[in-house]
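Chapter review: from sequence to fold.
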Amino acid sequence: MQDDSRQDRTDGERPRAFALLDAGNDAATRLEGVEALGNPSSSMTGSERRIADRLLRVVLTDENATVRAEAIDALYFHGDRYIDELVARVADAVRRRDGDDDPQSVFLRWLTSGHAAYRMAGATGVGAADSPASPDATRRLREAFDDDDARVRARAVRSYAALGGEAVAPIRPLLRTPNRLVRQAAVDALVSIGTADATDLLATAAADGGDRLRKTVVDRLADLDSPASATILLDAMRDPSLAVRRTAAASLARLLAAGDAVRGRDVRERLASDSPLGSDDDDGDPARLFYDVTAGSASTRLPAAAERHAMWLCGELAASEAGSPDDAQRWLLDALAHEDAYVADIAAAYLPRLDGSGLEQALRALAADEGTDPDARARARSAIRRIKAQTAAAAADRSLDYIYVRRPADYTEKRSQ
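The token string follows.
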């Protein structure tokens, strides 16, 4: 029997679609080949780099605009990085040839194309081209905010911010669009702009937008290193949506770990002074939210430094008078087995500061459980030793009467008074 995995191939390793792209074929045949490369069969999945190179060649050399546009769409199917690569190659080609054109001018012309794929690449290229920002370029990008293709709108708003566009009013409608790609791009643009007006618009979206928009905003605010970002995120810790609250906690941890504008102690003091938000699916305890972040409940895994900041905040809040010490005990005990040793060590350091009932018994049970991670058992034993030391010190404080005496009679005279 013939191997079905070779049905899309000719010449052993050359996909049949490649043969359709030969210059001797008519435009309809070449278009068929491009469409096949944009929706490759399983037999071609291992050749993505070769497919991308062939599609890039089509965009740069084919004589038919429709074939070239379909090749851009096919590149987009394989990933945004190939559109970025296309833009870079086009810019290099423009710089090498003689003429008055510069890359930005070429991409601005692409923005007027009747093919959405060209407009998408043009919107990308205007912001990526190594050309000075111009009022005309930012104006043309703002006009593309109304394009009927979501990909064009998303790339236009990102390029607008990259070129130094600062007016945020044109971006406001993009925040309300049903298209997730465009909403995310609008939020990214506002974070990149970073002005007071942009931050105010982000704050409004975080407070009044739909669930998905609020979550997108608080997720991206970690990249805007400013006290205003922390204020918005702290408010979002009381959002009605558990997903938004968890995302806000993750962003706060990322902001503290990577930024310079916000102090951890200020975040801790604000959270410790806020009353927990109760709800049906979560008690709203900030310590629990930061524990959830370290336990992998955030939408994406955080960098190690952010997870350590999250556990520090969890421990600080758990050891304060806010929240339930018994709940906090469970969270910190669970964190003793965290895969990051620093996160686990932070949890172990805070356990002796809790006032929950049965803590020492729980630690002894964990230390004796041979099925538990050995490092977690060692941390449990260490916590037990610290608890015993604290207990002994407290007992000594209660039983000893510290009186300075110069002679034995002083003590008896003091005690008889």
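Two observations follow directly from the output. The chain has 23 helices and two strands. The mean pLDDT is 86.
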